[in-house]
Amino acid sequence: xxxxxxxxxxxxxxxxxxxxxxxxxxxAVRRKMLRRTWGNINGAHIPSDxxxxxVFMMGKPLxxxxxxxxxxxxxxxxxxxxxxxxxxxxxITTKVLMAFQWASQIKCSYxxxxxxxxxxxxxxxxxxxxxxxxxxxxxxGVLYSGVVVRGKAHRHYVSxxxxxxxxxxxxxxxxxxxLSSDLVPKMxxxxxxxxxxxxxxxxxxxxxxxxxxxxVKIQEFFQNSILYLFIGLISTCQxxxxxxxxxxxxxxxxxxxxxxxxxxxxxxRFFPVCISLxxxxxxxxxxxxxxxxxxxxxxxxxxxxx
Length: 306
Known about the structure:
The protein is an alpha/beta fold. The protein folds into 2 domains: 12-220, Spore Coat Polysaccharide Biosynthesis Protein SpsA, Chain A, CATH 3.90.550.50; 276-306. It is built from 9 helices and 10 strands. The protein has helices at 25-36, 64-77, 92-103, 122-132, 183-190, 200-210, 236-241, 251-262, 277-305, and strands at residues 12-19, 52-60, 80-86, 108-115, 119-120, 139-144, 171-180, 216-217, 221-223, 244-246. It has a 7-stranded mixed β-sheet, with helices on both faces. Strand 1 (12-19), helix 1 (25-36) and strand 2 form a beta-alpha-beta unit. The longest helix has 29 residues, at 277-305. It is globular and about 85 Å long. The termini are far apart.
């Protein structure tokens, strides 16, 4: 395993572990954008006594050319955590556990696990953790619970032999969740006894469940896999209230959100009410229904006249 540089004796408030891939150019572009935006440790307005770092976790590249590119990136930035496993979906749980095993050696208060297609407002997260967090057995994020998939063709398939439960215990979605550092070594040790399953976030939830830890909903984390399709509909004022936004964001969208959050904008100062994305969808649905009703009414009138 190739470990990030400059982590020897430094004590951190927050360690950010970003899941990425070594095999696609688009992931390299995403890592570059994160270093320029919210992952820039010199750009965030954080109190000097609260240190933090970002690392990108990944498996080994699939060919020599990719390996050369990744090693050049490592030499330049020193922020890659590269495992010896093949970086494909079926090893995603191994990927997370490998990162957790490494992170258990790092002195820190909290660990944020996220993905390279997510935006995180680090100053807001720091404030939230200092006021509402708990550095004792804390596990928080976007909560989810669902049925255990038994269809063998599905990528989330889990056999009854690997997990007898029909429904997962409530867990935090994998795009962004926070753990207190004391939980991480406990999860790594427990993982030696519990069969690994494909959905890594559900597996982390199982580990937390076995440890007696209840997940906490972080209201300011907003996650939706099709968010990138309607990112322009989210009000600037709503962006300001969120501290985690994802997933499937493009690098340009990450930059767009960063500019909105770090630049004072007067674009909405004349609107005293912040209209949420949910409210916009309701208004749009109401408008469509109204237009459809008008159309149907006129059609009936025409038929009667004839």
